[in-house]
Write a structure and sequence with these properties.
Strand 1 and strand 2 form a beta hairpin. 76% of the residues lie in helices and 3% in strands. Helix 1 crosses helix 3, helix 3 packs across helix 10 and helix 6 packs across helix 8. The protein has eleven helices and two strands; from the N terminus they run ααααααββααααα. The longest helix is centred in the middle third of the chain and has 31 residues. A two-stranded antiparallel sheet has the order 1-2.
Length: 275
């Protein structure tokens, strides 16, 4: 890796970490940047996951109060399926050839870009959901009587299966899994958007965490770029976000969508040999 490539990867990770802390979509920048720097497509994806994961771990502490209110049975069920799915997705990625992943990349980025673009509508729908739902409830008290939470058995089974599918996708690529998880939690019947975000953060971090461990054990991480990008992502996540929050959120969203769209088009053209 040349000095110039290292500087560019640091800047890409700084932007990626900043975007992840305020809006999401950091992988739209980090994965293509690694490929442009000469890293093989699959290793670019694994290295990007490793680089951006520490920031997501730190964000869990922000939802500590919300997580204390959640049903532990639900957390355990979805946590286990997230871990299993994350490992399966990571193994599936490592079993994919470089050419196949490069062919799939534009489709994966298209899905992630569309999810990001329509996430405000999905979130707005979740906020407006009615709290009236008929269910046979499972009750699990967290030690504080007024914090007992309920969910139907059928909903728990269904949402665990959905979460398993999301986790496999997350371990394989991961773009857009945050909004996928939020939507599935809304289907399950969760209403409080802050508690949903807390649950989403835990599940997303779990998925990426086991994927990171799998990638490291498989020696699928290019460590010099990864270390450079971890530093950039930390700076972006903790410092860059301060300045990003001063910008209009719509400007940031438009920027992320434009980047995602541009990278999707580029890799579509690359997959058919035009560029």
């Amino acid at each position: 890796m040349t000095f110039l490539a290292g500087v560019l990867l640091f800047i890409a990770a700084l932007l990626g970490g900043t975007l992840n802390s305020v809006a999401g979509g950091g992988s739209f920048i980090t994965v293509p940047s690694l490929i442009f720097a000469g890293v093989l497509p699959i290793q670019a994806n694994t290295t990007s996951t490793v680089a951006l994961w520490p920031g997501s771990v730190a964000s869990i502490t922000a939802y500590r109060r919300e997580l204390e209110k959640l049903n532990r049975v639900v957390i355990l069920a979805l946590g286990v399926t997230s871990l299993v799915g994350g490992v399966l997705g990571a193994i599936l990625l490592l079993s994919t050839s470089q050419s196949t992943f490069l062919y799939l990349l534009p489709y994966l980025m298209l899905v992630a870009t569309l999810l990001f673009a329509f996430s405000p509508r999905i979130t707005a729908w979740l906020r407006k959901r009615s709290a009236n739902a008929d269910s046979i409830s499972i009750e699990y008290t967290l030690g504080i009587p007024d914090r007992a939470s309920t969910i139907s058995r059928s909903s728990l089974i269904a949402i665990s299966f959905i979460q398993l599918i999301i986790a496999v996708y997350g371990g394989y690529f991961g773009g857009g899994i945050g909004i996928m998880i939020l939507a599935s939690l809304g289907i399950m019947g969760m209403e409080n958007i802050h508690e949903m975000n807390g649950m989403k953060t835990v599940l997303q971090t779990s998925i990426n965490g086991v994927a990171v461990i799998t990638f490291i054990l498989a020696r699928a991480v290019v460590w010099l770029p990864a270390l450079v990008m971890i530093a950039g992502a930390i700076v972006g996540g903790y410092g860059g976000a301060f300045f990003a929050r001063k910008l209009d959120a719509r400007v940031i969203r438009v920027f992320v969508i434009l980047v995602g769209t541009s990278m999707t088009i580029y890799f579509f053209l690359r997959s058919i040999g035009i560029v």
